[in-house]
């Protein structure tokens, strides 16, 4: 289990997805994008806008049952992408590399890019924006909710004047 946590805000995610798109521009054109669901959907949408790409396909891979790692299974194939030639795969994070390896086997000719990569999985990517320590659990904006936090002074009975 991860020891540290890193929270990614919507603003940071958007900046990193635009940086990913900028780094991908020299590799254009792409026939389309394959978003690895669910985490790759939002980065793929941002990159698609920035790269002017209209064809967005998805691959849905399930590797966890509750919190236990299992065998990866495709529950939705990216049929339009064929073997991946000319396509760009986008995910939010490559962690252990299990999902990335599985997706690459199905789309061997695609270019694989993600926002964040941990050491155990980064070799499976062609491009990533930020390396994250292996013991860090990344909390994405869709994993968190803003909560009201009372002011520090409200914990005191009296306020110094």
From TrEMBL:
Keywords: Cell membrane, Glycosyltransferase, Magnesium, Membrane, Metal-binding, Purine salvage, Transferase. This is Xanthine-guanine phosphoribosyltransferase. Pathway: Purine metabolism; XMP biosynthesis via salvage pathway; XMP from xanthine: step 1/1; Purine metabolism; GMP biosynthesis via salvage pathway; GMP from guanine: step 1/1. It comes from Acetobacter okinawensis. It comes from the Bacteria. Homotetramer. Xanthine binds at residues 95, 138. Guanine binds at residues 95, 138. The keyword Lipid metabolism does not apply. Belongs to the purine/pyrimidine phosphoribosyltransferase family. XGPT subfamily. One of its GO terms (biological process) is IMP salvage. Signal peptide: none annotated. The gene is gpt.
């Amino acid at each position: 289990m991860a020891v540290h946590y890193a929270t990614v805000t919507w603003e940071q995610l958007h900046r990193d997805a635009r940086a990913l798109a900028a780094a991908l521009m020299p590799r254009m054109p792409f026939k389309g994008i394959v978003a690895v669901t669910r985490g790759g959907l939002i980065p793929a949408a941002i990159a698609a806008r920035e790269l002017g790409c209209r064809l967005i396909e998805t691959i849905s891979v399930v590797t966890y049952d509750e919190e236990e790692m299992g065998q990866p299974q495709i529950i939705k194939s990216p049929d339009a992408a064929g073997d991946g030639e000319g396509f760009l795969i986008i995910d939010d994070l490559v962690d252990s590399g299990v999902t990335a390896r599985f997706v690459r086997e199905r789309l061997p000719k695609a270019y694989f890019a993600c926002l964040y990569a941990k050491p155990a999985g980064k070799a499976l990517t062609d491009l990533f924006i930020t390396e994250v320590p292996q013991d860090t659990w990344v909390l994405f904006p869709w994993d968190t909710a803003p909560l009201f936090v009372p002011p520090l002074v409200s914990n005191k009975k009296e306020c110094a004047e």
